[in-house]
Amino acid sequence: MLIPEPKFYLKDVRSEQPTLIYLQVKYTHEGQQRLMLSVGDKVHPNEWDYAKHRAIVTKKTQYNADVNLWLEKVCGTYRAVFRNFIIDGIIPTAAMIKEKMEVVLNLNSYIPVKKEIRVTFFSFIQKFIEESESFKATNTRKSYTSTYNRLKEYASFCNKEFSFEDINLEWRAGFIKFLQTLGAAKNTEGKHIKNIKVFLNEATERGINKSLAFKSKSFSKPTEEVFKIFLTQDEITKIANLDLSDDHKKDITRDYFIIACLTSLRYSDFIRIRPEHIKGEYLQMITAKTNQEIVIPISPIVRSIFEKYNFRMPKAEVNQIFNKYLKEIGKQAELNENVHVTKTVAGVKRTFIKPKWQYLSSHVGKRSLISNCILEGINTNSIMMISGHKSLKVFQSYNKLSQQQNAQALSNNAFFKN
Fold it and tell me: Mutual orientation of helices 233-240 and 248-263 as an angle, nearest 10°?
């Protein structure tokens, strides 16, 4: 079920004084459900945008920026609460959502504070990251925090507290040079520029930022195509056949990774597999990152793993430790083929040569499923439906076949046999 779209309304649009703001959601489940929840804050009807359902922020009403940040948090909390019910296999009633939101947001004791405050470049980013806790994935928030920290370091390096007006093309060039002095790869530079554009777009939407230099085509994120590995079916089998009975944690890590390789699930999804997600011959769940329902055939190997744990998968290691164990497992499986990876680091293009096992991570599983399905001639649309990709461009970035592997796959097509 898709999460119903929330909107905000004023309690009394004719009021001559600030009036309460309500969250409203309508959807059909066991009859018509209508969620009405006071967010605990007020705004004057003259300061309300009835098309955008947000408070109007001007030089005279800067305090409304805080109102909108609170509304974003309320909206994000609503989505998170609804999603968690769906993940647990429950379609919630309006009353269930309201009760949960009042607890999470502590609305019964919420006291809005209205005051004129100057929102700076750094104070906005910091608050945006705090507010995003309820509606952004953990890894996304970590990425935002990393960018914020690099920005603070650059400000210290320049001995200047940047304003919104400072962020232009010249500033971009200087920031990238600074990142290069830290040894950043080109795609890391791109990650930070992308996040900065997210911050600035949000600030602009909320009427806080007026400088639009960041919207220039030249204010683009640096990027380069870097070769990333996938595992062939034979390599997956080698890992699956390892005897890891003497190391319980590695055994669990290996089993989860095999599931990833044969389902395309991300780490954030495969660690959440529960008995209710296993429905006959299929694995059915809603993805954590995209909130998209996927249905994946359960292969015999994956089913044997589920049966091994009586369909109740054990707790997985945190991602960092998971990847550490995975590299050790790959070494035990003798995935020793040398892999050449060329990428730009600190502004200089370099080539690194390492055995394949050193490049193993949880995300290799998703690339492996997609690449192996392409090798088997499965059509793109079918693969995208189980991988959860909506964008063909993003999907294609997971195809890690070499020219030789692609040619071998094509040679099995009837067209090349005539």
Answer: 150
Architecture of the domain made up of 119-222? Orthogonal Bundle (1.10)
Q: How far is CA 254 from CA 12, 54, 86, 192, 274, in A?
A: 59, 48, 28, 33, 18
What DSSP designation does 211 have? Answer: -
As a residue count, the chain comes to 418
The two three-digit tokens of residue 355, written as one number? 């055995």
**Contact between residue 195 and residue 185 where contact means Cβ atoms under 8 Å apart:** no
Element at 208 (helix H, strand E): none
Full-model pTM: 0.63
* CA–CA dist 381, 266 (Å, integer): 19
Q: Matching CATH topology for 119-222 and 233-417?
A: no
CA atoms within 13 A on the CB side of 338: 4
Strands (E), 261-314: 278-279, 282-286, 293-297
**Whole-angstrom distance, CA of residue 250 vs CA of residue 172:** 44
Reading the block at residue 386, the tokens are: 């189980």
Question: Does CATH place domain 233-417 in 1.10.443.10?
Answer: yes
Q: How far is CA 239 from CA 32, 242, 300, 326, 405, in A?
A: 51, 5, 16, 10, 21
Tell me the per-residue pLDDT of 17-67, one tens digit each, with 9 for 90 and over: 899 999 999 988 877 899 999 998 999 999 999 999 999 988 778 889 889
Model confidence over 84-118: pLDDT tens digits? Answer: 888 888 888 989 999 999 888 887 655 555 544 57
